[in-house]
Design a protein that fits this description.
The chain has one helix and no strands. The longest helix has 19 residues. By secondary structure, the chain is mostly helical. The two termini are 23 Å apart.
């Protein structure tokens, strides 16, 4: 899994995210980190925490990891409603 990290600005209640052409996934998980102050010190700290988080998240996924679809679910959780 190749993680994408970028800063985006909210316009009203909408976020517009430009994805690279090579990004082929139809489903993805979005994690938002609010930025309180836009200073270089807070940017550096945020960068460090974000890089740390991405490195650890990537340890859970192998590049050859298969996509787990509903077909592979043996017993669905009836309480889960997407």
């Amino acid at each position: 899994m190749d993680a994408i990290r970028q800063k985006i600005k909210r316009t009203g209640n909408k976020l517009i995210i430009d994805l690279p052409e090579e990004f082929k996934s139809e489903m993805f998980e979005l994690i938002l980190f609010p930025i309180e102050n836009d200073t270089s010190e807070s940017d550096n700290q945020l960068n460090e925490w974000s890089d740390f988080s991405l490195r650890n998240l990537e340890t859970f996924y192998n590049k050859d990891e298969p996509d787990y679809t509903n077909v592979k679910i043996k017993e669905p959780n009836e309480k889960y409603k997407p």
